[in-house]
Every structure is written in structure tokens, then in C-alpha cells.
């Protein structure tokens, strides 16, 4: 790998005009579009049950088997049919490789896995006083030590899930991608739809049922794992948030979701267009270095002014998270 500077950035930070369709995630300074080099990309799941927490950060409906089914079905929406996925226009192969206990984040000198991790509670509550120094090793960060979700100015409590990618800044090639689900801390009580003090209540009920009213309740729907991961998998492959356009179906890569939402589980044509434009079957991956001059890419800032995308009902990936590798 070249000595090019690497940046970790939460996918989906671009503000675009409503006239654009799908949007690719780009680097703020080079405008390189993000993409995977190989057409076969592996991922694992950290179920949150190997961490010393009192309660798994999910509903009783989310057994390990149910979580696996929800997540692999979500990734299959973005996978070519030759690999058992849903999309014939691509040969991108997203392969589930089992359970992971690896820390979230990119370690330049260590072994890296693309991980979907179930976090349990807010770091400010689970590990008060824990802070990450500038050069804290990935394995020793507060989030990885305590399996908590970082709540800060960058990741507010309206965040349902966060996908962080590591990529080569000069080319846009993705080196690692991790998704954190902002799960609950095991405390009981009523579920809040605002910015919940005990984290978000993830469920795996299928078909949908009535909304849950309290943490620990089963046979009800709240924040659907499959719905959430289908959206996050789009960020995983290099897509940013897409706008909702009047008179057209709302794409899966739209930035917002709400408790009880199942609408993001399947892709709209706009989402498929993005996938198959970047990774067309039997053709070269479409890359771009100067986004304003290439179709399918859009430039956007990577600073504090990036899209806030917050709603009382929760926004998916509302803010940029940035860290040097």
C-alpha cells in the first residue's frame, strides 16, 4: 500500500441537490469516490455476547440465529445473484464469515475484519470518565473496551447505527468497513422514541408486529435489525445518503428511519442503480478522482458542517466521525 494518508469517515455525509439520484461517498479533499477493489468482500458479526455485559443489547426476539438471518438477508440485497444475492446486474459478492471478537476500527499493524457490532449502552454512562487519547490503540478505545456506543458531539443519541470506513485517500479504495448498532444497556423501563437514555431497542420480529413499549419486551417491533443493516450495507459498499425526490419511491439510502420502519429492507431502483453503476457485472469497477467532473459522484465536506440529519424519531448516520489511522 502506498503512503497515502488514510481517513476514517462515517458513510453518508454528503448534502446534494434533489435532482441527483444515488450518491457516492467521496473524500472531502481529493473527491475520490469510495469503492472496494476486490469483488468479493467478507464481513463478520460481533453479537455482543462475548463481551462482559449483563444483557445482550437486543430484544429477546434477536437470538443469534435471528440476528444472523436478518444481517445476511440485508447484505444479500446488495449482492449479485451468482453469489446467492438479489441483483443480477452486479457480481459484487458480500460473504458472511461467521462470528467476530475483533475490535471495531482499522489497525494498520494488526488483523482487520469488516465487522457488524452490537454495542450496549452509551459510553458516557457505561464507562464514565473513559477517554481516548490521540494515539489510543484501536483495541483500547472506550467503545471497544466496554462495548459501548460513543455519544459525543459527533455521535448524538439520535444515532441508530454508524458505519465507519477506512480508505486510501488518493484512490478511494476501501480497506475496512465496520458498522456499530447502537443497542440498549440492559436497563428496564419504557422505550423512548426521542434520544433514549438506555440506547436503542433492536428487534428481529418478522413479520412486523405492534410497537414495543418497554425494553425487554418480546414479540413486538421497534428498531428492526434487518431494516437498519440494509441501509448500512449501502454505506459499506460506498454509497452516501440519497435525497427523497417528490413523486419517486424513497430510496433505501435515504437518511432517516423511525421505530417500526420496515421500508428500508428492500432496495429501490435508485439504490440498485448506484450498486450496479459502481460494480457492474463482468466490467471494471467505476472509480472517480475528481467528483464534480464524473457522473455518479458528488462532492461534500468532511468537517463539522456535514449533514446533521437528526429527527426525534432517530436519524441513520447523522454526523461524520473522523479519526486518523
List keywords for this structure.
5 helices; two-stranded parallel sheet; alpha/beta; disordered C terminus; 325 residues; seven-stranded mixed sheet
What does this structure look like?
This protein has 325 residues and is of the alpha/beta class. It has one domain. The protein has five helices and nine strands. It has helices spanning 64-76, 123-126, 142-146, 225-236, 269-278, and strands at 6-10, 40-46, 93-99, 115-120, 161-168, 174-183, 202-203, 223-224, 322-324. Strands 3-2-4-6-5-1-9 form a seven-stranded mixed beta sheet, with helices on one face. The chain has a two-stranded parallel ribbon with strand order 7-8. Strand 5 (161-168) and strand 6 (174-183) form a beta hairpin. Helix 1 crosses helix 4 (225-236). The longest helix has 13 residues, at 64-76. It is globular and about 50 Å long. The two termini are 14 Å apart. Mean pLDDT is 79; it is low at 1-20 and 291-325.
Map the helices and strands.
Layout: E1 6-10, E2 40-46, H1 64-76, E3 93-99, E4 115-120, H2 123-126, H3 142-146, E5 161-168, E6 174-183, E7 202-203, E8 223-224, H4 225-236, H5 269-278, E9 322-324
Helix pairs in contact: 1-4
Short description:
The protein has helices at residues 64-76, 123-126, 142-146, 225-236, 269-278, and strands at 6-10, 40-46, 93-99, 115-120, 161-168, 174-183, 202-203, 223-224, 322-324.
Please tell me the overall pLDDT: 79
Give the count of helical stretches. 5
H-E string:
EEHEEHHEEEEHHE
Return residue spans where pLDDT drops below 50 for at least 5 consecutive residues: 1-20, 291-325
- Going by helix content, strand content and strand pairing, the class is alpha/beta
Widest β-sheet, arrangement of strands: 3-2-4-6-5-1-9
State the major sheet: 7 strands, mixed
Shape verdict: globular
Number of domains: 1
> Measured on Cα atoms, how large is the radius of gyration?
18 Å
**Helix content, binned percent:** 10-25%
Sheet-strand content, in percent, reads 15-25%
End-to-end span in angstroms? 14 Å
Instruction: Give the number of DSSP strands.
Output: 9
Amino acid at each position: 500500500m502506498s503512503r497515502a494518508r488514510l481517513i476514517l469517515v462515517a458513510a453518508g455525509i454528503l448534502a446534494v441537490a434533489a435532482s441527483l439520484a444515488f450518491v457516492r461517498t467521496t473524500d472531502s479533499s481529493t473527491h475520490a469516490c469510495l469503492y472496494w477493489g476486490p469483488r468479493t468482500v467478507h464481513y463478520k458479526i460481533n453479537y455482543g455476547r462475548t463481551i462482559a455485559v449483563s444483557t445482550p443489547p437486543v430484544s429477546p426476539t434477536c437470538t443469534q440465529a435471528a440476528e444472523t438471518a436478518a444481517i445476511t438477508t440485508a447484505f444479500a440485497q446488495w449482492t449479485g445473484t451468482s453469489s446467492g444475492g438479489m441483483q443480477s446486474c452486479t457480481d459484487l459478492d458480500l460473504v458472511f464469515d461467521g462470528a467476530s471478537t475483533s475490535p471495531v476500527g482499522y489497525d494498520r499493524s494488526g488483523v482487520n475484519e469488516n465487522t457488524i457490532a452490537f454495542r450496549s449502552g452509551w459510553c458516557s454512562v457505561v464507562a464514565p470518565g473513559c477517554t481516548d487519547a490521540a494515539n489510543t490503540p484501536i483495541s483500547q478505545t472506550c467503545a471497544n473496551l466496554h462495548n459501548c456506543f460513543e455519544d459525543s458531539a459527533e455521535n448524538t443519541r439520535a444515532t441508530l447505527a454508524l458505519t465507519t470506513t477506512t480508505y486510501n485517500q488518493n484512490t478511494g479504495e476501501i480497506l475496512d468497513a465496520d458498522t456499530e448498532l447502537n443497542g440498549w444497556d440492559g436497563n428496564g423501563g419504557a422505550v423512548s422514541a426521542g434520544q433514549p437514555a438506555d440506547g436503542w431497542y433492536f428487534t428481529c420480529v418478522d413479520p412486523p408486529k405492534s410497537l414495543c413499549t418497554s425494553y425487554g419486551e418480546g414479540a413486538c417491533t421497534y428498531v428492526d435489525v434487518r431494516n437498519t443493516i440494509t441501509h448500512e450495507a449501502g454505506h459499506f459498499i460506498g454509497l452516501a445518503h440519497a435525497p427523497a425526490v417528490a413523486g419517486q419511491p424513497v430510496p433505501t439510502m435515504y437518511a432517516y428511519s423511525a421505530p417500526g420502519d420496515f421500508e428500508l429492507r428492500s432496495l429501490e431502483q435508485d439504490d440498485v442503480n448506484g450498486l450496479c453503476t459502481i460494480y457492474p457485472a463482468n466490467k471494471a469497477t467505476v472509480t472517480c478522482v475528481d467528483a464534480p467532473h464524473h457522473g455518479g459522484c458528488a462532492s461534500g465536506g468532511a468537517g463539522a458542517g456535514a449533514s446533521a440529519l437528526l429527527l426525534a424519531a432517530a436519524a441513520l448516520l447523522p454526523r461524520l466521525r473522523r479519526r486518523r489511522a
